[in-house]
Write a structure and sequence with these properties.
Elements: E1 12-23, E2 29-41, E3 46-50, H1 57-64, E4 72-79, E5 82-85, H2 91-100, E6 102-105, H3 117-126, H4 135-152, H5 169-181, E7 187-191, H6 199-214, E8 218-222, H7 226-232, E9 235-238
Parallel strand pairs: 3-8, 3-9, 6-7, 7-8
Antiparallel strand pairs: 1-2, 1-4, 4-5
Helix pairs in contact: 3-4, 3-5
The structure holds adenosine-5'-diphosphate and magnesium ion.
Length: 246
């Protein structure tokens, strides 16, 4: 019986992934980072990337999000429409994948000028109904959900209607988390989401990550704080294993 049970494909699969940087301002100096990365991440797993600073943890997440080009190999993400190799995806495919499938909490918030914190957080939910007849109701529901996230992440109500440009590092980081986790996506990439948070907010983020894992998200995370990594990991991978020997 088990022999015929179809295996669910991993939410994320890296095969033969290589990465090197070419430093054009240094006589095209070649900086090797990864040689042959193989990694599967299934729904409901939270894989924590370990390894010293500079080993390539952030680079790995940026390749999955297609912010960085992959030098060789395949990175397959399961979208609702089927598997997509992000190393070959068109810009349009990447937009769709980022909207519906991959959540990415980067280390820093990319501030959108003049947009209030509330709408920065609500936008990923609100945009699903843009142009639709029920858009006004949808926007209000998205804002209501954004208020819940802002409250949970302890952003004082007096800040909700201000653009986050002047917020503190920790406040911006929490806006970034709320914006990128509010829409429940099946793949979550987290790059040091708790780096500038106090203990209470760190605990909240740990709870949010566990809730995402419990609903079946596949997560890959980098955590500066070993205790946070230990609290959320279902598996740990040391990226040192994948380093180029050159
Ligand atoms: N855009 C880039 N151009 C050139 N080198 C880079 C770039 N981004 C990262 N690197 C280099 O790749 C290596 C891995 O960096 P990174 O992924 O940020 O490490 P980690 O997140 O593990 O601290 C470092 O040597 C870093 O200097
Ligand atoms: Mg990093």
């Amino acid at each position: 019986m088990t022999a015929t049970t179809p295996q669910t494909p991993p939410m994320l699969r890296l095969e033969g992934v290589c990465k090197h940087f070419t430093l054009h301002h240094q006589n095209a100096l070649d900086l090797p980072v990864f040689e042959d990365v193989a990694l599967d991440v299934h729904a409901g797993e939270c894989v924590v990337l370990d390894g010293a600073s500079g080993l390539g943890k952030s680079t790995l997440l940026k390749m999955v999000y297609a912010n960085y080009r992959t030098s060789a190999g395949r990175i397959t993400v399961q979208s609702a429409a089927g598997p997509v190799d992000v190393t070959q995806a068109s810009p349009r495919e990447m937009v769709r994948l980022r909207r519906d499938t991959i959540g990415y909490v980067s280390q820093f918030l990319r501030v959108i000028p003049r947009v209030s914190a509330l709408d920065v957080v609500a936008e990923p939910l609100a945009e699903d109904a843009e142009g639709a007849e029920n858009a006004p109701e949808h926007l209000e529901a998205a804002r209501e959900e954004a208020r819940r996230w802002l409250t949970r992440l302890r952003i004082p109500e007096r800040l909700w209607h201000l653009p986050p440009a002047t917020f503190s590092g920790g406040e911006q980081q929490r806006i970034n988390i709320a914006r990128n986790m509010i829409k429940p996506k099946p793949l979550l990439l987290l790059d040091e989401p708790t780096a500038s948070l106090d203990a209470a907010n760190t605990d909240t983020v740990i709870a949010l990550i566990r809730e995402a894992t419990a609903r079946g998200a596949a997560t890959v995370g980098i955590f500066h704080d070993a205790e946070v990594g230990a609290a959320v990991a279902t598996r740990r991978v040391n990226v040192g294993e994948f380093r180029s020997k050159a």
